[in-house]
Amino acid sequence: MTRTRDDDRRERLSAATWTVLARDGVSGLTLRAVAAEAGCTTGLVLHAFADKRALLLHARELLHSRGTSHADALDDGTRGPADVLRLFLLRSVDAGPGEDDGTDRNEDARVWLGFLAASLSDPVLAERHRQGNHAFLGRCAALIGRALPELGERECEERALALSATVEGLNTLSTADPDRYDRRVRRSAVDGAIRTALAPRP
Question: In which domain, by residue range, is 13 found?
Answer without folding.
Answer: 1-50
